[in-house]
Amino acid sequence: MRSTGEPDDLVVTGLGLVTPAGIGAEATWRGLLTARPTAGSDPLLAGLPVDFSCRVPGFDGAGLLGRRLAARLDRAGMYALVAAREAMTDAGLDSPLRDPSRVAVVLGVGTCSFDTYEAEFAKLARGQPEKVSPLAVIRSVPSMLPAEVALDLGARGPNLAVSTACASGTSALGVARDLLRGGRCDVVLAGGAESVCSRVPATCFHQMQALSRRRHDPAAASRPFDRDRDGFVLSEGAGILVLERAAHARARGARSRARFAGYGASCDAHHPAMPHPEGRGAADAIRVALADGGLSCRDIGHVNAHGTATRQNDLAEYEALRRVFADPPPVTSLKGILGHAVGGAGGIEAACTVLTLEHQVIPPTANLDHQDPAIELDVVRDAPCAVAMSAAISNSFGFGGQNAVVAFTVP
Question: So which residues are the catalytic ones?
Fold first, then answer.
């Protein structure tokens, strides 16, 4: 493992989370340790073949952000602002910012705002074009997700939306790494936010046979690595990390929650929707992340898996890990509890990987009743597992063969 203290060392100084397990990093972490799935019947999906999802519970956008601001945002935007505010507070960064031109925002978003489009298209279908909201574009353009965070915080550095399907949140962390290493910024808020619990994506993913069809038991629907898995569950939320160069964090007396050691990306170039069955591109991304962080396979004590609970994805991820690790370390997939937040998943799971390193505890994978015998991994199940570890990786793989992996170490 490369020693810390080098000029390009990057650290995580703040975390913010909004997930179906809870609002805030502490609430989310407590929810993950219970291994209690969050999927349930969704009234907004009533009448569809798949009518359940993982929603953020008790979220009051107007109460948290003010009625006027909340009215301007879609759900993903509200989640991003709440998570960003928590992350900045956690990092000890005050508002107004000392040098806003040196603060960047880079967020991953996998889709446009289906909620907004569905509502506005319905008005057109009813022959009411005059009812279409002038805010529809502002709510739905992907670049407005980081822009709204920058507006809220007064950050005037680079402001970027990154879209690599389900790898978007993790890819955003890679872009943030490059901005910091290149000296363009002192602070970057990076991660992802998304809400895909809407009628169009629910129907499309169902038609693709990508969603679980366990309408009789939604809580048991998301089953990563299980023999009887039959697809993922739609979800929503945001995960945002404050990243800085280690020297900058030390100079302002900030706590380092973890070292952001490495990032790797690749493309399968195999199929529009399915991963390469042998996990070749995913394995490449893992290797690059390890090399970027000066890490060996022996250094990694935990893998936060992409683990969507689709037949092909879980098998491909196993093949990727088998290609890289002679003996893969303990694995968990948070999607058994949280569902799949698409562009937000990578940011959420990266933040949870930092929490795993901090607590030296791996949250369990929910609904793993009978592990697929074809997947020979040490998957943590039933209860949290205390493990001494100095480094961990978080995997994200998306449509189009997009692969992104981040590595964190204890500070």
Answer: 166, 306, 340
